[in-house]
Amino acid sequence: MRATITGIGPLLEQLTADTGAPLATLSALTSVPLVAWALCSPLAHTAAQRWGINRVLTVSLVLLTAGTVIRSLPFVSAEGWPVATLWIGTAVIGVALAAANVLLPAVVKQSFGTRVPLVTAIYTALLAGCGALGSGLVVPISHVETGGSPWGWRIALIAVCATLPVAAVLWMIHHRRSGHGRGERRAAGASRGPSVWGDSVAWQVGAYFGVQASLFYVLLTWIAPMAISYGRGEAQAGVDTMMFQLTGVISSLALPAALRGRLERWVPALLPALALVAVAGMILAPGGILWWGMLAGLTSGSSLAMSLTLMASRARDHHTASALSGMGQSVGYAFAAFPPIVFGLLHTAVGGWVAPLAFSGLLLVAQVLLGLLVGRDRYVLDR
């Protein structure tokens, strides 16, 4: 899932040189999936109620594969501005990921109800790990030569997603063999019950998800350009982006141990602390961007795992978890689509990295405050 989008940041320089579009414009490619998630996340829950979770996930994997191919087809350009395949393929990827993002917490709640934090941590670790490999491999793959010509960014983006067709086939086999999702579709005219959109706990979870996602996509998009501006090579910048994500694997796996005992109440608010130190380090000692990025990655990985855990643990059953996941991710990604763009605009306007990094610090402060709210033992739709 994540490898389909994490390769864009390290390849931004190549994309700019190939398309002629400004760097700030192409950085919006990272925000296209976020907009799609904001718009389509609530629809995923509705579709799952009508056709079943497994069937919707099967379609999403097929769409994800198609979008990856479309994105790498030769684009049609108008006056130097890339249009058509590059942006359309990215949008298709966003729509496909919207369904998978929303429904996987419900799958965890349904199949592993007594082990939600542990299974969510494993899922998040795999998500971060595969995304990190995508970031680290795209640049070396793009420079591989055949007949004296480099493969380029198009082949690189397809190569890091080469396992997608395999994943789609495996899930289709699972769908045919599994009984989950059958007989769960809502009958026509059945009562839908109260909506999570009117629940304060759901809004708090959605807001928490939004601010933690904002930091991840800001750094995913801009660590590589920052590193290059500090004199690091393109491949080194890709490694910086990869390591930012790999440390998230460690912290996401460690989260279940923290969610025990009295500390559980305060964990959501404590997680941003390391990233606040990292942002300060990027401002005061930018030469250590690799290490600061890794420190921020610890917050990023654990915060995503925390958010997905909340979407399952703050619901009484997997149907409610699916609704909460759809609503929370819609709200969260609607917000998270803008910070990467704001970060780029601040960089363009000021000409440095201090102002945009200070903006990132404000996002982390907001996460602390929201963490105090979502850490309370409350459930969605409880009166």
Automatic annotation (TrEMBL):
<feature type="transmembrane region" description="Helical">
    <location>
        <begin position="242"/>
        <end position="259"/>
    </location>
</feature>
<dbReference type="Pfam" id="PF07690">
    <property type="entry name" value="MFS_1"/>
</dbReference>
<protein>
    <submittedName>
        <fullName>MFS transporter</fullName>
    </submittedName>
</protein>
<keyword id="KW-0472">Membrane</keyword>
<dbReference type="InterPro" id="IPR052524">
    <property type="entry name" value="MFS_Cyanate_Porter"/>
</dbReference>
<feature type="transmembrane region" description="Helical">
    <location>
        <begin position="20"/>
        <end position="40"/>
    </location>
</feature>
<feature type="transmembrane region" description="Helical">
    <location>
        <begin position="151"/>
        <end position="173"/>
    </location>
</feature>
<feature type="transmembrane region" description="Helical">
    <location>
        <begin position="290"/>
        <end position="310"/>
    </location>
</feature>
<feature type="transmembrane region" description="Helical">
    <location>
        <begin position="356"/>
        <end position="375"/>
    </location>
</feature>
<keyword id="KW-0812">Transmembrane</keyword>
<dbReference type="GO" id="GO:0022857">
    <property type="term" value="F:transmembrane transporter activity"/>
</dbReference>
<feature type="transmembrane region" description="Helical">
    <location>
        <begin position="52"/>
        <end position="73"/>
    </location>
</feature>
<dbReference type="InterPro" id="IPR036259">
    <property type="entry name" value="MFS_trans_sf"/>
</dbReference>
<dbReference type="InterPro" id="IPR011701">
    <property type="entry name" value="MFS"/>
</dbReference>
<feature type="transmembrane region" description="Helical">
    <location>
        <begin position="331"/>
        <end position="350"/>
    </location>
</feature>
<feature type="transmembrane region" description="Helical">
    <location>
        <begin position="266"/>
        <end position="284"/>
    </location>
</feature>
<feature type="transmembrane region" description="Helical">
    <location>
        <begin position="207"/>
        <end position="230"/>
    </location>
</feature>
<feature type="transmembrane region" description="Helical">
    <location>
        <begin position="116"/>
        <end position="139"/>
    </location>
</feature>
<feature type="transmembrane region" description="Helical">
    <location>
        <begin position="85"/>
        <end position="104"/>
    </location>
</feature>
<keyword id="KW-1133">Transmembrane helix</keyword>
